[in-house]
Each structure stands twice: as structure tokens, then as C-alpha cells.
Amino acid sequence: MSTxxxxxxxxxxxxxxxxxxxxxxxxxxxxxxxxxxTAFETKLLLRNGEQLLLTVIIPSLLLVLFSTVDxxxxxxxxxxxxxxxxxxxxxxxxxxxxxxxxxTGFERRYGVLKRLAVSPLPRWGLMxxxxxxxxxxxxxxxxxxxxxxxxxxxxxxxxxxxxxPLLVLGTAAFSGLGLLMAGTLRAEATLAAANxxxxxxxxxxxxxVPLDEFPDAARSVLGLLPISALSDGLREVLQHGxxxxxxxxxxxxxxxxLGLGAAGAFFRWE
Length: 270
Hints:
- It comes from Streptomyces scopuliridis.
- This protein is mainly alpha-helical.
- Helices cover 70% and strands 1% of the residues.
- The protein has a two-stranded antiparallel sheet with strand order 1-2.
- Strand 1 and strand 2 form a beta hairpin.
- The N and C termini lie far apart (59 Å).
């Protein structure tokens, strides 16, 4: 008759002490937890129809529509040369600000953030995962919009290495503002405010309509907005072949510092 090993902790391959388990229970390494949370956040974002509308469909439709139909005088030989950098900036804003603010606001309302905050993943790790998810989504957006722009005849100038710091600082600036809104307002207020800001900055941020079309007084104010700095900086590099646009980088750096600093100070988890 065979003898059971369940209570003795023995097996055919060796002996383990009573009460031990394989694999050993406990939290996974921090890097693995952040990677798993990043993958989870990215899947949630890409499965959400409203988020896809903001992050993929609207920027793509705007790029195709205004590049093929002569509605607005962009001042460029080909409209796509002006529009493509602006739509790339819009894609960054739609993901890092609008999408993240709405999703995080409702996670806070339904207690998701409160529960995640007491998990083995530290709070800063959760925010890191959310930021990495935004970057992953932006890479997919940029690839898609670039392919569409090339199909419309876009011929970018400048170095892609000059584009990278603009995208990173723009993402940081919009992420800080989005988290600040999500962490201080009610979810319904965040939904309304984030969509309203998206529409206002789409019209007045130099994305589709050149800032030269606005009065001088308004232009000087609009030029200080993060969407204006990002779209103008990308245009300086990709349309005019300029090196690093330090003025636009400085504006984005200030917005990033203010937004992330305020979000860290005032964000409420519940």
C-alpha cells in the first residue's frame, strides 16, 4: 500500500519542510509588478471605445479631412506638412491628458485606486505603470498617424532625435495636468472638463488652425499653452528642419513641473 505524502511534506523528488510552498508566496519583484500593471492598463485603454475615439479615430479623421479638403489656409505648400505635427501633438494630449484624466477619475470614484493603493504595488509604482501605459499607447498612435501622413504625401524634415524630448516633455506635462484633474475633481466633473479642454485646445492650440490667424493679444497667450508649445515645436523640427526648439521645450518643462508637482501634492486616492 502506498503512503500519502500530503501531511509529511515529502515527495518523490525530495523532502521539503512542513508548511512550505513552491513557488514561495509573496509579492513579485517590483519591476515585474510594474510591467504587469502596465500591460493591464494598456489593455483597458485599448478596449475602451471612448478612449479609442479620442486617441485614434478623431486624430486620424482630422488628419485625413483637413489634408484632403481645402478648408483652412495652413500657409504650407501641402496642408499635411502643417497638419501632421499638430495632429501628433493632439494624439499626445488625447492620451496623456484627456484619456488618462477620465479613466483615472472613474477608477477613483469606484474605489479601484483605493484598493490598488493597499496592494503590494506601491503608489508610485502604480503611477509609473499608468505613465508607461500612456507611452505605449502613444507609440502606437504615432506609428499609425505617421503611416497615414506618409500616405497623404507627408515629407518630414529634421531629426527624430529632436522630436523625442518634445514628446517626452509633452507627455509629462499633459499627464501631470490629467492626474491633477482626476485626483481633485469628481468623476463626472472630470469627464466634462477633460472633454471641454480637449475641444478648446483643439481649436485654439495651433493644431489645425495656425496661431497666426488669431489676434496678436490672443496669440501671445495661446502660445504659452502646452499644446501650442508641443505642436509648434514638432512643426519647427518636422516641417522646417530646425534643431531642438529650446523655447517650446522650456514651456513644456515648466508645465510638466507644475502639473506633476501639483498632482503629487493634491491628488486624493479616494
